[in-house]
Amino acid sequence: MKYKISTLVVTFFSIFNASFGQDVHTIKLMFQNEFFNKTLVFDDLYFKINQQDSIQINELKYYISNIELLDNGNSVWKETNSFHLIDGSNNKTNEVNLNLNRLINFNQLKFDLGIDSITNVSGAMGGDLDPTKGMYWTWKSGYINFKLEGKSNLCDSRNHEFQFHLGGYQYPHNSLQKIVVNIPQNDKIKIVLALEKLLLPINLKLQNHIMSPSKDAVLLSEKASLLFSVKE
Amino acid sequence: MKIKLLFLSILCLSISAFKVIEENQFIIPLNWPKPVYDFAKNPLSKNKILLGKVLFFDPILSRTNTISCASCHSQYSAFTHIDHAVSHGIDDRMGTRNSPALMNLAWHKTFMWDGAINHLDMQALAPITHPDEMGETMINVVSKLQQSKIYPNLFYNAFGDSLITGEHTLKAISQFVLTLVSSNAKYDSVMRKQAQFTDQEKNGYQLFRKNCATCHTEPLFTNLQFENNGLKVDSIYKDYGRIRITKESSDSLKFKVPTLRNIEFSYPYMHDGRFKHLSEVLNHYTSNIQNSKTLSVKLAKPIVLSSNEKVDIIAFLLTLSDRKFIFNPNYFYPKEILMPKAKD
Predict the structure, then answer these.
(1) Which of A61, A198, B134, B235 has the most crowded Cβ, counting Cβ within 10 A?
(2) Chain B contact probe: residue of A132, A144, A171, A210 with most B CBs at under 10 A
(3) Can you tell me the distance from the alpha carbon of B283 to that of B288, in angstroms, rounded to the nearest whole number?
(4) Alpha carbon of B306 to those of A196, B279, B312: distances in Å?
């Protein structure tokens, strides 16, 4: 009998391996946060934006969620439990592995920038959604979808700081953004977030902080959603 | 052989099913609505409830390790903070509101006087991180718990993992506060036909149903809605309630309707604790309603009560006192776990 059970176990594991081990096909998404084509370095580096003015970035965190692969507009693969916090200060978080279990043809990547409303009202969650990650508002429930903080001489604020905490899941201040980008059929896909396109158009003298769900948060989130591009 | 195995697995399954039922501490009182809390996502267990209780009583959750949840939510006052109009936190800092009494929270969809919090699990984050309450960060809380002598074990027993996370910390606190169910007042016995109101209480109940029950709806004694009950705006706090959260002008001066259960123990009353006695509360409703655009439609018609009728209503309100709840040993300070390191 013992022998039989061990055979059974061995058979089971070989089946398990065959279906889940060998055919796994991984697509690596690499998020690259840049400012004028330079990789973001926090705190010490100032980026000159013209003769007089400069910007320093101290924090950048954002959620990429509900990742899907599309083939000519049709969904061909969807990640389950798909929540990824990209933290500019931690390179490990910049890579997202999509574990496909077969070869799939695709030419587009679809994802949300932020956390959907159902997840926002579903209580405490773990992993990248854990409230210790600093991406959850405590005075009013809800995830921060996109967080960007830094300094610039242009800001009139205390210590010339700017803080943009973009979030909000309820109408009319739902700031979640749905993004679709064309991608090549590669195993590694580099997605660039060009932050200068977000920061430079902002009049930092007048607008240097957004801390709650609002019309401004929605507008800036819409702009942030346009920053993602795929580098071949 | 196969049949034996099948039998064995059925046996195992049924044992585990029994275990779940046995461990589930949550019982819905007779004739009460279904709770809104999703227990499937955070199934109750003895060890999780115990962990939640220890966290609830432990000042480790505050920056200065001096203030616990229980500091502003003590059992003998129906889990609120009495003697103070507004609650105070670390370094004796004063808040701007009276801490809500905690009970029957599994039926609530929103929390706080202004409904700022959308889920029970997330509620504890607000006082833990508020600078005038516990002034701590969640990441520090988790790291202090991880370094403590008692918590890795308690978390292991509760969640099968001694690695402490924010998720598990919050879910454990939810577990304990979910067990704070008050449904054994005299009122409940009368409803279950195990006791009878006195004539005065009976009259008070009828007056209550006529004048108060559209907002303080049975059996929870709150309709769980936000209403402007005609209070004058406090000139110092300038608290306009729910509008801060929704930014809708129609929510100006609205606050969440509090439960009236255990109201005998949970004084002072209103969001800023401005009334010390129930008679003041009733006088407000009969004589001091401030008219404004957002005044509850339920108060549009003046409430008229004679002084005898007010006394009768108060007699009824006292039948909402649940001494089994106030003295339930399941909610006592877990001295067997916290005592060796208690500071006070």
Answers:
(1) B134
(2) A132
(3) 7
(4) 70, 12, 10
pLDDT by residue (tens digit) across A16-69?
A: 444 444 567 899 999 999 988 888 888 767 788 888 899 999 999 999 999 999
Q: What 3-state class would DSSP assign to B83?
A: coil
Determine how β-strand B255-256 pairs with β-strand B226-227: antiparallel
Euclidean distance between the first and final Cα of chain B, in Å? 63
A220 and A162 Cβ atoms separated by less than 8 Å: no
Model's pTM, two decimal places? 0.86
Backbone angles phi, psi at B99, to 5 degrees: -65, 135
Neighbours of A65 (CB within 10 A): 23
Q: Nearest to residue A183, comparing CAs of A63, A68, A93?
A: A68
CA distance B63 to B59: 9
| Phi, psi (rounded to 5 degrees) for B215 | -95, -45
| Residue recorded with tokens 């005038």 | B132
Amino acid at B73: H
- In a 3-state reduction of DSSP, which class is residue B141? helix
Closest CA of chain A from B317, distance in Å = 32
pLDDT in tens, A135-187: 999 889 999 999 999 999 999 998 899 999 999 999 999 999 999 999 999 99
The helix (run of H) or strand (run of E) holding residue A207 is: none
pLDDT at B339 over 90: no
Rounded Cα–Cα distance for residues B70 and B268 (Å): 17
Confirm if A179 and A223 have CB atoms less than 8 A apart: no
Contact B130 A139 (CB under 8 A): yes
Among B116, B122, B130, beta carbon nearest to A123: B122
Helix (H) or strand (E) holding A128: none
State the CB neighbour count (10 A cutoff) for residue A230: 16
DSSP codes of every residue in A61-72:
EEEEEEEEEEET
The verdict on a CB contact (< 8 Å) between A124 and B1 is no
Partners of A1 on chain B (C-beta within 8 Å) are 1
Strand partners for A55? A47, A152
First-last CA distance in chain A? 58
Q: What pLDDT, on a 0 to 100 scale, did the predictor assign at position B8?
A: 52
Report how far residue B60's alpha carbon sits from residue B293's, in angstroms, rounded to the nearest whole number: 44
As a whole number, mean pLDDT of residues B218-242 equals: 94
Rounded to whole angstroms, the Cα distance separating A173 from A214 reads 5
